[in-house]
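Continued from yesterday's entry.
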Amino acid sequence: MSRTTVIAFANNKGGSGKTTTCSNVGLAMAKAGKRVLLIDGDMQLNLTLSFFDEDRALGFATEEKNIHTAVKDEKDLSDFVVETQYPNLDIIPSSSLMSSIEYDLFTKWQREFILKKCLSPILARGYYDFILIDAPPTLGGWVMNILTVSDFIIIPVEASPWGLFGLANMFDFISQVKNLNPRLEVMGIAITKADERKSYFKQTYETLKEFEAARLFNTYIRIDSSIEWAQDNSQPVVAYKRYSRSAIEYTKLAKEIIEYAGR
């Protein structure tokens, strides 16, 4: 039985392409034969909406089949896993009630380790090759929970004039979490929404290439309208239009991640 690799997709800046990267990398891994569990840790439900229509996504909140219920009540996350339509790919949905998660955690003993406690039965079984967690764009107690249970963190960064804003704060936060989880490693920075025609893309790329705190993935994701059409159809672009530019790039990125993780 092999050990499950847990990867958090996190950036304290919104609009970085974090959820899109998480969903497409997850599906690309599943298509490569890896068993993958996605966890939607954001109250916006966008990762859940990448695989289910709005009625079904909201239904998970009504049915209490979501990450908020599990963490609030400190339950085994095994009971909250939902199958997607894709082989090898499951998900634990989110809920709009995640807006209260910081308060819920504040009242708990050893509050930084609640998610780790809830996830431990799944990790103990070792069924999944990868667990990918979509973190919200904040740096609070909930994201600390996510990073405390993670082996790696991937930081999607939008190739825009404001894309690098707040990155230093992100790394300061990671340094704090390493006191609780020494094994946490920044796997790399993934550039998203790249437009090679724009000078600021080159500036962003060169800046991150020389960034000493983390490596830069070889694959970057270019702007592609197929991504928006896929989102409108509640599908990752890897499934919606698998031969599109962005689908091919996400597949390459997933391969890089798999190889780095040694899986």
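--- second protein ---
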Amino acid sequence: MPLFDVYPLYNVTPVSGKDIHVYDDKGTEYLDLYGGHAVISIGHAHPNYVKAITKQVETLGFYSNAIQNPLQKQLADKIETLSGCNDYELFLCNSGAEANENALKLASFKTGKKRVVAFKNGFHGRTSAAVAATDNGTIIAPINAQQAVTILPLNDIEGVKTELEKGDVCAVIVEFIQGVGGLDQGTKAFFEAVDNLCKANNTLFIADEIQCGYGRSGKFFAFQYYNVTPDIISLAKGMGNGFPIGGILIHPSIESKYGMLGTTFGGNHLACAAGLAVLNTIEEENLIANTNEISEYLISKAKTIPQIKNIKGRGLMIGLEFDFEVGELRKQLIYNHHIFTGGATNKKLLRILPPLTVKKEHIDQFFDALKKTLEEV
């Protein structure tokens, strides 16, 4: 049976990984500066991670959410400790799209409204309401388009004010650093004004931290660079280091009721073991501090490359913008220099999303290869 052909594929077949590297079926070593869309947060096959998953799968991998699962509470407490998001409550699911879907559903439940405000170049997932809030018409089917969504330019505070004052908006959803869209950010004044407008208009403020969260921005959550209090925080990618897990942090002003949310696989024992291993490793190895140190080094090196016209993002979520499309550049980095990087809807942007364990020597390797490749393309 053929696979449904929806992904353009590079001719590389990784079969194993170790920290910042992956290895293909021919034994070739690749430097992974993309981490599978920012999913690999603590490095491939981290010993803590392997040990935790192995131990858990040998005992109990899964049972339903109809029983007690102390691992869920342990994970919730650890997120609270490391993030500083005190008093929020955790609902666990399986992916970023599902996290945002539940966030939007909760906002509609809480407010009794149904319209969503999202932003140009935002990406929130591929499921019903999440994809409708995504600024990419090519992936929105007619069944998704029936959702009531208004897309505004980032930093358009007057537009947000106008829409919220109409009284039918249940949620404003925003990435504090855009991922797929190209590493753009709103201003401090914009984010803080949106937060205030939401609170004044019975609208929930959803922080989509699926890609920029879990230490990647240099803080545990990217919204923590600003004086805002999201009503719901969605998380996923770096949460399980490759194991499927997602979730939302829910402000205590939102009351839970039996049955309002649910999931079969979300928060299963194996997922929680993976999630705990990630958080313990981030803490024990001071990976957020490493993120900030390596980010500063990466940006300083990028500034020495004249072909790089703009540097976007924060932490280890960096975009290098050129005055030409980077598709061929990425191919040359993969095939000639064995380095994975990422693209974006901004075709001139190279995305750098390595594991948080990355070291200066890896950054040096990348820039040496980049300089050689820029001479070739």
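The two ends are 38 Å apart (CA to CA). The mean pLDDT is 96. Will compare against the first tomorrow.
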